Amino acid sequence: MAAAGLALGFAAGFAGPASAQDTIKVGILHSLSGTMAISETTLKDVMLMLIEEQNKKGGVLGKKLEPVVVDPASNWPLFAEKARELITKDKVAAVFGCWTSVSRKSVLPVFEELNGLLFYPVQYEGEESSRNVFYTGAAPNQQAIPAVDYLLEKESVKRWVLAGTDYVYPRTTNKILEAYLKSKGVKDEDIKINYTPFGHSDWQNIVADIKKFGSAGKKTAVVSTINGDANVPFYKELGNQGIKAQDIPVVAFSVGEEELAGIDTKPLVGHLAAWNYFQSVDTPENADFIKKWKAFTKNDKRVTNDPMEAHYIGFNMWVKAVEKAGTTDSNAVIDSLVGVAVPNLTGGYSAMLPNHHITKPVLIGEVQENGQFETVSKTPGLVVGDEWSDYLADSKDLISDWRAPMSCGNFNVKTGKCGGKGS
Amino acid sequence: MHRAFCWLLAAFLALAAPAYAAEMDARLEPLVRGLGAGSYADTEKALAKLAETGDPAAVPVIEALQAGDLHVRKPDGAVVVAKRSGNGYALTDPVTGAPIGEADRNAVEKIKVNNALRRSMSAALGALTLMSPNAGTRWQAAEAVFKSRDANALDALNAALAKETDEGVKRAMTQARASVLLGSSAPDDDKLAAIEVLKDRGDQDALALLNGAASGGSDAVKAAAEKAVAAVENRLALWGAAQNLWYGLSLGSVLLLAAIGLAVTFGVMGVINMAHGEMVMIGAYATFLVQEAFRAWAPGLFDLSILVALPVAFLVSGAVGVVIERSVIRWLYGRPLETLLATWGLSLALQQAVRSLFGPTNREVGAPSWMSGAFQVGGLTITYGRLWIVVFAFLVFAALLVALRKTWFGLSIRAVTQNRNMASAMGIRTARVDALTFGLGSGIAGLAGVALSQIDNVSPNLGQGYIIDSFMVVVFGGVGNLWGTLVGALALGSVNKFLEPYAGAVLGKILVLIFIILFIQRRPRGLFALKGRAVEA
């Protein structure tokens, strides 16, 4: 008996160092300093939590996961450098990272060249599909279009202000929305598009302009793709100038629980946001996730948000695909990822599609006094992520399918050839 | 006999009044219960029925729904007002307001509202409170009807108008009546009169209604509405120009606040201080800490927190400034390139330090009640927050001017910056003056942080957004000249705001930059160049 115990002890003693060497490395590529740290630091934390949870369950393929955290410091070229370092030097099996579209565009060639795996957790403008990238955030048809539909149907909005920060995501999204609205019979003079620089802080006359635009006798709404830091002064100005949600609602695509944490939300009650997840969603999975998150961060006030759920889904998909493939080899995992379905936090299953986007429900929420969102509308089923917009002339004929025979990210169904836009 | 009858009558009335009230309550009861039926559409239907009764007893119920206090008690589906008390909820009857016990947190469910419901609620409350004894409430009610254009409210509005004595409320009610009539199928004469009333009101809301009228209806109404639209638009265009001027002044005052500390450290001392923005940021975080302290220990005095934050921010930022001067900058006097690099590095270090201490996310700094909201001057909307910032910017400017011109400390600063050796020979401790001057500039930046915390994010990046603008203002105004900084800030603010409506925010900013580049080419020393020996020193 004693000998057996000793033997066990030895075995454990041997297993310790052996498994420490033999871990699966997971790269985390989120800015921990610079302008984007405000959003991305949280995602780094959630990844560390997910990895810790997985290790408690015994890791993957019998090996422990080891997070490798790097800081690209909100510097786009540095993203590419750090991505290269993660894949070649650290030999990570997969990378979870990026927030802004420009950082994703910067690392894209690196992942394609080195055949790495990137899970991208943020809602984005679409018009892209790469064999090496898995888009777990929303494509425009999983966020922007349903939000506009809600305003068209439930609020009978006739006049639209598309306000955004001046960079690729708002510009592309607004282009898609403009085409979509026109297809719904909205006239040119009823659409106003406004761009502001990053970090714009003086919103006085833009908000006054919106007010003026809204006084043409038709119901008006604002679709906001304003990014990051600029949102707080924007919403403060809305509150100060007394624009109430019941008169001119603002629906935002980049404002979540985290962004609202810095504002007094009382004057904003009723303004909208469209996401695939809200912290307020009442499901057992979500309650469990929030509890773990608060325990992990040791802060009872920390909020959860949509990109965190995207990482939750993406990470679980990767774990499942690796177990299915029995290896962490990129090609095997890329192939086995398509078709993998895992539970999301809103009470359903999200599946990885052949175009490397996923299925998600779309929720429209109204801001509440406590800084949370109250879901006022939810799509009946899951919405399939559509990478190439049907409302843009140069991409409506394109599809993406990364499964074996086709294996193409921009297949033109009209010409029957692979290689359209973006190739 | 007669007397006995009177007594009887009185007794009967005394008995009947509560009975009548109870009967009304009983009538409201099922309608109130309907509010908790489930979907938004059901709640809306129940709300409409409740409003139709015209019963003032429905007012507290709708107000409770508006405030988010109305809950459904799960066991029996009764609709109750539930307010947090301890770990559970204290329940009261929504109609009578009588307490009906307590409930566990999970035993009641909040009745959710959406924007459509919020609109219906304001409309219903408007129609129901037109007869309120409080003039302010009546005015709000009239404004609510003006917005809702609820034809059902017309009778109540007419009745209220006949009784109204307050001039202001009467005007609001007449306008509300005009708004309802214009949207209804009233005869043309009524509509034409309504158009006149709205033309006199002459604001954005009136314009919206008139625009609506101009796009439909009979020819006479259309023509009158179009004319009224033109008149209102003319009036608004004039006010629009005034509004732009105010926006320019307001942006200018923000620029002034951000730049004025730099006018001391860069302008007077000649230190290229890239960490200036971080001093502003530290001031904003000091405000946050002061507010947290108030929230924790004296929530009743929250309105004073900003005033307390002013000296705290000044001292904290000033102290950090003195430390920076003593430890880094004093070794680098006369070496502008090294100073630039060192302070830039410092700015990154300070940002990351704050990020590690407070986290990367925004911190909430609340506005005291005297700084929130807005008021109207003619067609101008002026927000209190901005107004106080303008006042504050000028006060800081005046105080700094007095400090530099009229005090011993100011004299020493000027002496040291103009001729260090001579000042030293006269017995001034130049090293100490240097440290204190840098501290003064940093402290003023901290004051700016208090003001900026009211309009911008309190995040580690706060300062970055202002550093370029601050340098622009100081260089444009003329290095070393405080008045130049004032004129530069106001000029850049107004130019920005006048360009924005035409060129857009992005192009506007580019145009201003190009303008400054060209200007500096022509006048390298800025608007108000210093002359004389100080320049050569």
TrEMBL record, chain A:
Q: Does the keyword Transit peptide apply?
A: no
Tell me which positions the record assigns to the signal sequence.
1-20
Q: Which Gene3D superfamilies match?
A: 3.40.50.2300
**Is Nucleus given among the entry's keywords?**
no
UniProt-listed InterPro entries: ABC_urea-bd_UrtA (IPR017777), Peripla_BP_I (IPR028082)
This protein's UniProt keywords: Signal
Tell me the superkingdom of the source: Bacteria
Protein name in UniProt: Urea transport system substrate-binding protein
The organism encoding this protein is: Azospirillum rugosum
- Organism ancestry: Bacteria, Pseudomonadati, Pseudomonadota, Alphaproteobacteria, Rhodospirillales
TrEMBL record, chain B:
Q: Where in the cell is it found?
A: Cell membrane
Q: Which domain of life is it from?
A: Bacteria
Q: How does it sit in the membrane?
A: Multi-pass membrane protein
Transmembrane segments in this chain: where?
245-272, 279-298, 304-324, 336-354, 387-404, 471-495, 501-520
Secretion signal span: 1-21
Q: Which UniProt key words apply to this protein?
A: Amino-acid transport, Cell membrane, Membrane, Signal, Transmembrane, Transmembrane helix, Transport
Major localization listed first in the record, in broad terms: membrane
Similarity annotation: Belongs to the binding-protein-dependent transport system permease family. LivHM subfamily.
Q: What is this protein called?
A: Urea transport system permease protein
